[in-house]
Amino acid sequence: MSAPDSGARRSGSTRRQFLLGGAVAGVGAAAAIGVDLALNQNDSSAEQVSVPLNGDTVVPFFGVHQAGIDTDAQAHGTFVGLTLREDVDRDGLRRLMRILTDDASRLTRGEPALADSEPEMASPPARLTVTFGFGPGFVARAGGVAPSWLAPLPAFAIDRLQPEYSDGDLLIQFAGDDPTTVAHATRMLLKDARSFAEVKWMQHGFRRAYGSVAPGTTMRNLFGQVDGTANPSPGTRDFDTVVWSAEGWMAGGTGAVVRRIQMDLDTWDMLDRTGREQSVGRYLHNGAPLTGTDEHDDPDFEATTAIGFPVIPEFSHMRRARSDDTTQRIFRRAYNYDEPPTGDRVSDSGLIFVSFQADVDAQFTPIQRRLDELDLLNEWTTPIGSAVFAIPPGCAEGGYIGETLLA
Amino acid sequence: MSAPDSGARRSGSTRRQFLLGGAVAGVGAAAAIGVDLALNQNDSSAEQVSVPLNGDTVVPFFGVHQAGIDTDAQAHGTFVGLTLREDVDRDGLRRLMRILTDDASRLTRGEPALADSEPEMASPPARLTVTFGFGPGFVARAGGVAPSWLAPLPAFAIDRLQPEYSDGDLLIQFAGDDPTTVAHATRMLLKDARSFAEVKWMQHGFRRAYGSVAPGTTMRNLFGQVDGTANPSPGTRDFDTVVWSAEGWMAGGTGAVVRRIQMDLDTWDMLDRTGREQSVGRYLHNGAPLTGTDEHDDPDFEATTAIGFPVIPEFSHMRRARSDDTTQRIFRRAYNYDEPPTGDRVSDSGLIFVSFQADVDAQFTPIQRRLDELDLLNEWTTPIGSAVFAIPPGCAEGGYIGETLLA
């Protein structure tokens, strides 16, 4: 695969999915299967059909934007927040990001890291992406000018933040369809980073397995809700406007919010189906707004019941999240988490909420403020972690992530 | 799908893989893809090829043996050890196992549990299996006669066992290719069990994703070692002899050993490739014994180097695990684990070692005793959890798991 021209802006849809040996826009692995099948189409014996392997699918690391943002969300996500060691200066940051970039580009191709202690674990790549983000401490250490929004979010009344899930100088998001590949890549890059930074927090999350449900299906969170319907679609101008920054060293980058939201499934159980649908403003079976029939129908916030109440309640999550101000939009890319319960509980579950937006203050914070003030879901959800990172743009082969800040 | 005749013994290979709407032995999803493809073979446009969904694949719950033992290992495994509440008597155990059997059979078909609070989460099944095991406390509470081997393993010198990963009255093993399906099934069954038992421990593990590597590929553990080569093959007489019990209420059942083995990847890193190969007795690149070229070659323990040392060292894991006594064999079905590291470490990883064997004392314990005495791998591995369970046989539709003990 040839390196992209670093000057050429590539659309989300063309960078999202490439296959070894040739680029196929949009359909990704489906196309690879098609090739496989064409070779087998005269073979009428079902037993001899080869199983197409998703493992070989490569998402290109190099590009105008970092991968792992407009990439169709993979099944597994590992999020790591690191704290820089005291003695790491601007030169050290540059060395760190060169090493991490080099190994991330290798691993995402399914090749071993430079000093890979388990080279056989690097394959298959299975759509592995590695995405880097800088916290306020990183940008300060680099002597750079931080975006105005690069700071901890304002304190919200519903927050019960724990330091072990919050903040950090450097974010590394690992995402891929194979959990073993994700685990190996995580270990390799944390070894690279060890002399520069230590792990502050790590969170493992999951969505549906690749090939388990139809591509393009909106995920459900562990409340059973269809989650992320209002997302802009990668590859559209709408998406580009919501997500990509155009400012200074951040041009082609974006802002990331990572929040750990505990979801109390044990008390959620006490709510009946109607109550659950009212709390979010959507039907559970297909995610349609309570005023519609299909998931992507526009909600009608003016519609009222026979006795005059809004069909979509004022206190519903959807109503509170939505603004008439079209700049208040974000791109969500969340993962579920499910940890062993303690005490008398039967679950310790929730959502690793991840959103990307060009300007966190202008786009994310107003939404969260409305939800903080009034959102019925707050009864069962508690933010226990929160972090904001500047995701720098991508780079061309030979370059490194962060070069627009550190070069 | 029709219910199996409870009197008919079915071989491992025929029960391992069924598809909705028809049974296909051995090749499983590959055959389903074949059908899908046949429908598409005149369609030359790659963009219109439908992606075959593994999600719809069902592993039958009912049968002579419980599923999840001879089933090709799924990508995700969740293991839960429960402690029975004080007031649960034999009648209570029967009620508990009827409820659990009923909901497990529904969920493994991709149908909601009886009182499913999130019915949309039950689909797709993605080869979900649920397997139950009884600890010594369960059998005693039932007033039954326990197999002679149903007790904690003897203490080994290398053990550093922690109660939060050890023992328990009831084991539930959830395994499936979709992590969201596994999480939902876990929650539903723990809700069923809540008034009878509380969670003592829970462990999440993973292997390669379905469709990520070729079917039949032996897994690698996080040391990068090919792990499980010597396993007997489900569907063979050899497997049946090693795994299935023929005794009393356990006829058609087996014994399970579940041990949490911490693997110190941070110190493992200090060992070079040759040292790693000597420690296990196999080549890292393909798992072949150091005296062979292919993974499944028989090792030659008599072979010596030019200067007279054994090619496969006496202290190697493979040499110590192997016995001339052919009754000392087990069937391994392990999962990797990878948890957030603490302190200055970059990993907290290891193996959820799971083995099935008809007689734990006769088959497993002698192997473990030899490994305890001398196994170079002990330098980097520490057992931190251990539990033994009696896995009762399967049941026919209308019956329940444990009926041979409780009826």
Automatic annotation (TrEMBL), chains A, B:
Its cofactor is heme b. One of its GO terms (molecular function) is peroxidase activity. Residues 66-207 form the Dyp-type peroxidase N-terminal domain. Coiled coil: none annotated. It comes from the Bacteria. Keywords: Heme, Iron, Metal-binding, Oxidoreductase, Peroxidase, Signal. InterPro entries: Dimeric_a/b-barrel (IPR011008), Dyp_perox_C (IPR048328), Dyp_perox_N (IPR048327), Dyp_peroxidase (IPR006314), TAT_signal (IPR006311). Residues 219-395 form the Dyp-type peroxidase C-terminal domain. Pfam families: Dyp_perox_C (PF20628), Dyp_perox_N (PF04261). SUPFAM superfamilies: Dimeric alpha+beta barrel. Belongs to the DyP-type peroxidase family. PANTHER family: DEFERROCHELATASE, DEFERROCHELATASE/PEROXIDASE. This is Dyp-type peroxidase. It comes from Microbacterium aquimaris. The lineage of its organism: Bacteria, Bacillati, Actinomycetota, Actinomycetes, Micrococcales.
